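Need residues for this backbone.
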């Protein structure tokens, strides 16, 4: 098929609904050209003559799950960088993770939708700087297998470094040509897993966490999908555990068991259930 041929509004409607159902990503009609380009290229590679045929395959074929894994690589844009919105990371480390360690506990932290891993590796560097990296369990998940592969490699382009590094953080990376290479001790401290946030069974199989980071992800979801995802995340928090979302994201309009709090200028949501 010609990947440049614009899909009809009718085909857009059923394909975009399927993508939202399976992956949570929401596209409105103003994005029809972008979706046509991404879907058209993948459908042509997979040997389909039309996007309607591709839809029927994704919807009804028993082997469609593998194709969805390949399609997600075309649709997901993992935009992240080291120490993004660092104030939240500092509060998470100082006020929650560090205090749990000081009480003799072994806290668990989950970076949900971690993309290529800069967020969880930034947190790992902050923990290593405090000498407590080996006393914390770190989990990072994403729906993209390709993104997770890059995260595990621990090698990043210059654009991953946009904000100032905390003092002493340069101990945990080196330069290889024009790439940043993170200390293997930091990378190996993280358990990377492929996971769809909208798969309730997969999320429910995870342990409970003291801190969950799900930042700058929910903005890509419709409100109904955000509510599903947040309730699923809330179910994986320990009593008193906290969820950090992006600074441009708010959960106040949703019915949730989480209570909004602020500390040091950083907002978060606490599981107030006993």
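Answer:
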């Amino acid at each position: 098929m010609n990947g440049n041929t614009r899909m009809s509004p009718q085909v857009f409607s059923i394909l975009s609904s399927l993508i939202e159902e399976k992956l949570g990503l929401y596209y409105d009609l103003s994005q029809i050209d972008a979706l046509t380009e991404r879907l058209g290229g993948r459908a042509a590679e997979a040997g389909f003559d039309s996007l309607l045929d591709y839809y029927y395959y994704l919807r009804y074929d028993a082997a469609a799950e593998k194709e969805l894994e390949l399609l997600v690589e075309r649709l997901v844009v993992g935009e992240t960088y080291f120490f993004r919105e660092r104030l939240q990371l500092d509060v998470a480390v100082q006020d929650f993770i560090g205090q749990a360690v000081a009480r003799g506990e072994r806290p668990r932290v989950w970076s949900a939708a971690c993309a290529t891993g800069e967020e969880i590796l930034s947190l790992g560097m902050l923990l290593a700087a405090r000498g407590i990296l080996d006393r914390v369990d770190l989990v990072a998940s994403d729906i993209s297998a390709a993104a997770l592969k890059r995260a595990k490699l621990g090698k990043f382009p210059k654009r991953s470094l946009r904000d100032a590094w905390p003092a002493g953080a340069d101990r945990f990376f080196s330069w290889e040509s024009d790439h940043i290479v993170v200390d293997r001790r930091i990378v190996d401290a993280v358990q990377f897993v492929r996971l769809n946030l909208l798969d309730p069974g997969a999320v429910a199989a995870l342990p409970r966490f003291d801190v969950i980071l799900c930042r700058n992800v929910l903005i890509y979801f419709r409100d109904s999908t955000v509510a599903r995802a947040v309730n699923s995340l809330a179910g994986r928090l320990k009593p008193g555990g906290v969820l950090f979302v992006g600074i441009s994201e708010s959960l106040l309009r949703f019915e949730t068991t989480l209570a909004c709090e602020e500390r040091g200028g950083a907002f978060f949501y606490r599981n107030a259930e006993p």
